[in-house]
Amino acid sequence: MRRRALLAAPAVLGFARRANAADRIKVGMLKPNIVTAIYWIAVKTKSFQNQGLEVVENPFPSGQTAAGIEQLMRGGIDFYLGASGEVAHADSRYVEAGKPPPIALIEGGVAGGSFLVLRNDLKGKTLDELRVQNLRIGISNPSSYHLILLRAFLRERGQTTDDFAWRFLTVGGPEMLPAMVSHQLDGFMHDALTTTLALRSNAGFVFMSSDRGDMGARAKLLPGTGVCANLDFVRKNPDVTKRFTQALRDASAAYSAAPKAEMVAIMSEWSRQDPAVIDDMYQRFDPRVGLTEAAAKTWWDILGSAMLARGEISPKLTLNDVFDLDFVRRE
Amino acid sequence: MNSIQKIDSAITAQSDRSPEDFARSLKVAHRRLQWRRFWRGACGVLAILALWQLMSRLLDLELLLPPPLTVLRNVILTLAISDPHWLYGPNIYVHLEHSFLRAMAGFGSAAVIAIPMGLILGRVVTLREFILPSIKGVYPIPGIAWIPLAILWFGLGDAAVIFVVFATTFFPMFFSTEAGARQISPVIIDAGRCFGARGVTLFFRVILPATVPYIITGLRISLGGAWRMIVAGEMLASQDGIGYFLMESRFQFKAVDLMTAMILIAIVGYATEKILIDTIEKRTLEKWEVQPS
Q1: Domains in chain A: ranges and CATH
Q2: How far is residue B81 CA from its own chain's centroid?
Q3: What was the ipTM of the complex prediction?
């Protein structure tokens, strides 16, 4: 009897392990990059684990947003953190060809976090005064969210970037500050971290900030970063997708509740930055997610229109092609 | 009739013909050979294009591997500047012009330094022994590795890209020229001296013509390298040019534009080589009646 029980034990244990086995998901993200810090907060606060998810991490270097999207389209990863405009670009190509879009945004940040930093000697000038100056502005890639946002803002003013004498140079996020200090750039458009580093080293000042309303009142509502998914995976695994987005929201709730020092330490580890820098950045940056239908619509109205006006996306593309609103908060 | 007998009869037939007939038959044979090469090459290209078209359509790869006809149409439309709202700048010719000027600036400056240096080091043993190890030490560094340093030294702009092209094209030109100058037969030099050539005369009448085939080879290899590097440089340190067009089309997920950029690079690269190198070749080899290497 005892012998039979001993023989049965491994089978019972195996069954129990299978019953508790977490669903494995492949998640891509920009790393190191502050905009994807919510991923690391979710890991550190065991949000994925609590949702029964085992995450396989697929990092992509900062500025290589397109590489992550390409992987997502091919099904090499199931979810990707760090892109929004690129989703519209990629889906547009499929819609133009009469095919269903392969990827969609399923979640997004609650704050924009887009900054235009200029060198100090340009302080006190207006946008119209700067428009005619031959400024070299760094952007992380040609489809940069920050650049699209600027274009959207200019469009509201009846202008385009072609009306400016500015040159937009592609520079990796980490290289923006050295390039500005060495006078190779007159400014840059990037996230809160690069902005904080520039301010700390007194290399420049914040000329425009989306959160301050400098890029239009509605830009404040825009999700700064996107979480996108392979739609084939989503259709086959709706429950896993729901748990994934819930894990990110749980991490956002944990961020709100946790002491500042704890979150500074987590974000410092993720972005490989000095905690003092992250501490400085804290008021300027919100890593939380919580995309709403209203925010998705604002994104589409502002960024979608700007991309459409420039011919980057097809007129056939709709909000529902870019966003899968089944996973977005209704309120 | 066995094969030896066949050759014998052919030789006999040839020997019976007049020199004019023989020259004419040679011309005809040459034309036939050229035609055969042309249609065989064309068949190969057409077969690849047909396979590409079929794969693209049958495997539903149009967005990842656009069919050749779609790419060809896009190349024509791009060159015709048919889209008033072209995403990548004013028009393709602006990008091509900037890339061409950068490539030629880097390639030209490399030629101006590498060829004289190769000639001198090829002929002056003492200098060669001092300088060549340093050059050989730097040679294995790939051109692309110079990009971060070039941006640091010259900033984001033309100078960095030109420098990277220079760093890539210098070595093939230098080593070819140096090898050519070093390997000139002493008999040729002695013959030149017997005819009274000394110093500058010996250089321009004997050494330079004897080295020209090697220089041409170096130029040809370097020019290909210049186009390869211009794309890499512009992708990282420029806001225009064909490399920038290539990178931006990647960010727009437009595979057809990516392939258009690649085809345009191939066309411009081939045309540059045909016009530039062939002209140099004609002006030097034919002038000096040197046999190509």
Answers
A1: 23-111+223-327 (3.40.190.10), 115-219 (3.40.190.10)
A2: 28
A3: 0.76
